[in-house]
Structure formats: C-alpha cells, structure tokens
Design brief:
This protein has about 575 residues and is of the alpha/beta class. The protein is built from 22 helices and 20 strands. It has three domains: about 5-170, Thiamin diphosphate (ThDP)-binding fold, Pyr/PP domains (Rossmann fold); about 185-355, Rossmann fold; about 360-560, Rossmann fold, CATH 3.40.50.970. The strands form four sheets. A six-stranded parallel β-sheet has the order 3-2-4-5-7-6, with helices on both faces. A six-stranded parallel β-sheet has the order 11-10-9-12-13-14, with helices on both faces. Helix 1 (about 5-15) packs across helix 2 (about 30-40) and helix 19 (about 475-485) packs parallel to helix 22 (about 555-560). It is globular.
Length: about 575
C-alpha cells in the first residue's frame, strides 16, 4: 500500500532509487524539506562553502563515475553561483543534475525574494530545465532527468523546486531506476570505416569526449595497437590511454606539439572518436579546417546533432563510446596497417622529444625548475594518481609533461573555467580516498574556490594542492604582451602567504622557492595526506617572466615590439 510523502521526501527517495550515494551543495531555506528528508537518508551530503564549488564537485563526480553528479543549491544567488559548474558540465559533456530551490507557486512572476526564471537562465547551457510544480510528479521528473543526463551526449539538467511543492504531500508510486541509452554503429558504417582505413596511407586516431569507461579505453587501445595507429587525445582528455603505451603520441589542444600538429595536417585520414572537434582541439579550426577538412574525416560522436554541426565529415557515425570501442576491437587487424606502421614510432619519438626539459630554466638561471617539479611528482606518486587543474598557463606543466596513467587520472575543464582545480581535487579524494590526488592551481585561480580547502579539512579529504604563484593572471598577461606590449593592465596580483593560509584552515602548508626543496616538501605532503587524512598545500614561488616552457614575457614583448605593435599615442 502506498504511503503519503512530502515533496522533499519524494525527492530523496527518488535519488536513492537511482543509485545516488553522494550529493554536493550549500544549504538554503528554499529546500528545507529536502534537508530534513536527508537527515534519515544514507546519502552523503557534502556541504560546501560556495555553490560554484558544489557544482564543480558534482562535475567531478560525473566524470569519475559516469553517473550524474548531484548538486543542491538555493534559489537566486545560489543558482547564479552554481552556473559556472553547469556551463562546465555542458561543454565537457558531463552528466549532472542540479536541484535549485524556487519561490512558492503563490509568489511566482512577482520578482519575489531571490526569484529567477531558471528556464531562461539555464536554457542554453543544459540538456533540460524544468520545474516540478506538483509533488505527485516528483518521481517522473527525476527519472526523466537521470535519463536525459546520461543518454546520448551526457550533460547537465536543472530542476527547480518550489517551496510549496516540497512541503505538500502526495501518494504516488516510485519509478524504476534509469537506464542510459546510446546508439551503436551499423554493420554498413563499420564496413565503410574499415575500407577507408584500408586505403589510407597516413591515418591518425583522435579520441576524446565523455561516455568512456575502463573497458572502452582498453578496446580502443587494442584497436590502435593491432592496427599500428598513432593515437592522440583531445584537449583535456589525455587520460583515455596510459601515456606509457607506445601508440600514444600526444594531446591535441592548446600548446600542441608542432610536430604533432604537422602530422595531423598531413594525415590523409582522421578517425575522431568522441570529441566534439571544438575550437581548442582543432587549434581554432586550423589543424582540422572547417567546414570541409583537407583530410578525410570519420567523426564518431554520441550525439547525432553534433555530427555535421561544424565539420562535414566523410563518414559520420552516431554511437556511444562503449559501443564503438567494442566494435572496433572486434574488427581485428587490417593487412594494410603495415603501410603506416612506421608512423607510430616516429610520432612517439616526437612526443618524447617534446617532453624533454626545456632550456628556458638554465638560460634564465631560474631558481625553481617547474619541469623538475613535474618529474618529482611522477617519481613519488603511483601511476593511478589523479591530477586536477583549472585554467591558466600553469596548467601547461601538467598537460605537456605529466604522463597520465590511464582512465580517470586527469580532471580538468574543457570550458576553461577558473576555480575548478581545488573543488575537483577535494571531490576526487572524497570519491576515491585510496588514490593520490594532486591539484595544480594558479595563484589567481586558487583564490576563486580555495575556500573549499575547509571542505577538505571537514571531511578529511587528503588532497595535495600545489599553488603556482607568479603574482599575476599569467595567461592574460601573456596575451597582453603579444598584443599590447609593455602596457600591463589589470593582471598584477597581490597574494597572501598561501602556505600560512592553508595552515589557518587546518591543512599542512609549505613554501618552495628552490628546485632542490620541492621533492622533500612533496614527500612530507604525501605523508601528511596519508597519515592524517588531511589536505596539504605547497606554494611554488617563481619568476613570472617564465610564462611558458618556450618563452619569457620579455621575449614575447620584444617580438611584439619588433613587429610594430606599438599603441598610438604612447
């Protein structure tokens, strides 16, 4: 016999049915009935210090588990704070469901306290936005939300929760647990792919996007190995293959290896599995020209609407990643693969050369060698270490030089969102406490969500945070010097003592300014994380002139000045 339940209780019961074990959020009076229902629920509610951190943590959960990350925020300001994480989940194709408090239906359309029309606000950055106005429809709406968030191209869903609905009572049956739906390649499409690959001379395999799991990654690795294909990863999807694998030849994104860019441009066939082929992955649509590439292109994506949206590929296949990976693994070895077998070792050699120590540190007599910092991290941590980062030039050291150990060892926003690194690192450690988690954060980026260090201390998440402090918004300063040389504006930062700040939070904190001091500091941070189950922070203070592995700000400025980029009137 069905029993009557409040809207708040129906929501929590539905979340349990759909397998939710963790949610992230900031409490609000607009959803008190949900908070009350969570009191007796086995669901773990991670309380954050800002809703942007909550949404980033939910995004991290979605990336790591493949299940929707769940985020609860209050109406108005809570929703606007969370919007950055929703946008990130949309561009990263991460399954997420955000529940937002809303004014009661009796106050709607009066611009009541903190009232926002969420359909208008979130409409262009989600897969679906809806408002549950009746408690008896809670199970239906939530089942639909899970279905949409995980089927086809994964992405975020927003559900608004009016206060009066949460308090009202309904007698209604629960739904079944959701089942994600993905398309599969047809035999004809697989035959066409096989034929196109067989007649090619210089093929390249490019993988990325979401919807992968360990088995799918292994199947694609086997397909690349058996057919001697050079395999590259799209921007910030570098963890889809173990970088020790001989077929891995680098990442295709910001700061691409020029040799790899040339190889892709010269390819006669690109098999792109998973990536949207957006601006970052295609080098501003130049490495692969839009809309009709010079290379033959096979584009495989989980969303049929993404196929043909920018690129007119020679073959377009709507398929989930698990489905296409299994089909390609079953394809076996093409006899024709011996034609391009040599290209794998050549591309691999290009990658290893690209990852050698840059000469800039010796040339500039730099006290702190950031390349060596990355080497020390790799030497002291296991292969399954998770690296998280946000946006900024400092991320180059993680992208170019760190060798990721395989699936779900990299967490970074393709949206270029600053403030992602710390919440993501904290969430990763909460989700996988047995693994080492290291966060790369810029000084400006860290202070956007560094308060989530309090969350790490509260829940004993022993993440290790490395703050790259060059006292500036480095990426913007770099572009300033390229476009408006010697006219620094709005990019200088006055920073706190990050190590002392970390200690004030209850974490371990150290400052490093010399290369030789980093490895011992890292060892102490790792030990603190393991024994105390508390976070540790290492602040790296270094010369901001060393803006990239290959250039200084002084050099970029001089190049711009020599090219005649001098502002009139100066």
């Amino acid at each position: 016999m069905l029993k009557s339940r409040s809207g708040g209780q129906l929501i929590v019961d539905a979340l349990q049915i759909h397998g939710v074990d963790t949610i992230f959020g900031v409490p609000g009076e607009s959803y008190l009935a949900v908070l009350d229902a969570l009191h007796d629920s086995p669901i773990r509610f991670i309380i954050n210090r800002q809703e942007g951190g909550s949404a980033f943590m939910a995004d991290t959960y979605g990336k790591m588990t493949g299940k929707p990350g769940i985020c609860f925020v209050t109406r108005g300001p809570g929703a606007t704070n969370a919007a950055i994480g929703v946008h990130t989940a949309f561009q990263d194709s991460t399954p997420m469901i955000v529940f937002v408090g809303q004014v009661g239906n009796d106050f709607v359309e009066r611009e009541a306290f903190q009232e926002i029309d969420y359909r208008r606000m979130f409409g262009t950055m989600t897969k679906w936005v809806a408002q549950i106005d009746r408690a008896d429809r809670v199970p239906e709406y939530i089942a639909h939300a899970f279905q949409i968030a995980t089927s086809g191209r994964p992405g975020p869903v927003v559900l608004a929760l009016p206060e009066d609905m949460l308090a009202s009572v309904a007698t209604v049956a629960d739904t079944r647990r959701y089942t994600p739906v993905q398309a599969s390649p047809s035999p004809q499409q697989l035959a066409q792919l096989r034929n196109m690959l067989a007649v090619s001379q210089r093929p390249v395999l490019l993988i990325g996007g979401s919807g992968w799991d360990h088995t799918a990654c292994e199947n694609i690795r086997d397909f690349a190995s058996s057919n001697h294909l050079p395999l590259a990863c799209a921007f910030r999807f570098q963890d889809l293959i173990d970088h020790a694998h001989p077929n891995y030849v680098g990442d295709v994104g910001i700061g691409i290896n020029p040799a790899l860019a040339a190889r892709i441009k010269d390819a006669d066939l690109i098999i792109a599995i998973g990536p949207r082929l957006g601006e970052m992955t295609t080098g501003g649509y130049t490495v692969i020209e839009a809309p009709v590439p010079k290379q033959k292109l096979i584009h495989i994506h989980s969303d049929a609407l993404e196929l043909g949206r920018v690129y007119q590929a020679d073959l377009m296949i709507n398929s989930g990643m698990k489905e296409i990976a299994e089909a390609l693994a079953d394809m076996g070895t093409l006899d024709a693969s011996t034609k391009w077998q040599h290209s794998v070792s050549e591309a691999r050699a290009d990658l290893l050369a690209w990852q050698q120590e840059p000469a800039i540190f010796a040339k500039e007599n730099a006290p702190l060698n950031l390349w060596q910092v990355v080497q020390d991290i790799m030497q002291q941590t296991p292969a399954d270490t998770i690296i998280t980062n946000g946006a900024g030039n400092y991320a180059t050291w993680a992208h170019r030089y760190f060798r990721y150990g395989g699936f779900r060892t990299q967490l970074a926003p393709t949206s270029g969102a600053m403030g992602y690194s710390v919440p993501s690192g904290v969430a990763a450690k909460l989700i996988a406490p047995e693994r080492t988690v290291i966060t790369f954060a810029g000084d400006g980026e860290y202070l956007m969500n560094g308060q989530e260090l309090a969350t790490a201390v509260q829940y004993k998440a022993g993440v290790i945070i490395i703050v790259f402090n060059n006292s500036m918004y480095g990426t913007i300063r770099m572009h300033q010097e390229k476009e408006f040389p010697a006219r620094v504006s709005g990019t200088a930062l006055q920073n706190p003592d990050f190590a002392a700040l970390a200690r004030a939070f209850g974490a371990h904190g150290e400052t490093v300014e010399q290369t030789a001091d980093f490895a011992p500091a890292l060892q102490r941070a790792i030990e603190h994380s393991r024994t105390q189950q508390l976070p540790a922070l290492i602040e790296l203070r270094y010369d901001g002139n060393l803006i990239t592995p290959g250039a200084t700000l002084n050099h970029l400025r001089q190049v711009a000045l020599d090219s005649g980029k001098v502002i009139s009137g100066t």
